[in-house]
Here is the input.
Amino acid sequence: MRKLLLAACLSMLAVTQVHANDTSAKTGKPLTDQQQKMKDCSKESKGKKGDDRKAFMKECLSKDGAPKAAAPEAAAPAAAAPAAAAASDKKASQKEKMKTCNADAKTKALKGDDRKAFMKTCLSGS
Here is the structure.
């Protein structure tokens, strides 16, 4: 009888360990397919940082299970270059606008709500 009870306890423990790997640490609920995919992609992205990790995660999460061919991946960065340059120019112009508006607010000695209102109108271009 003891052996049977011991075997039952050990099998429950083994099932609990297997189940724990497929559950959320916070809620204890089973992971959705998307959550499991995110977990797997995150493990694969170890060592990657910044834009490289972001690009890898985007690619990994968009996969339908089958790896994509190498040729489209190689062509993607070249096609994305003009878009990245435009985004970079937009960030630079926004940064310049921020500098100019900050300098104007400082010159006018604005503080608190007045400064906030001024910055909002200045940055929006009005």
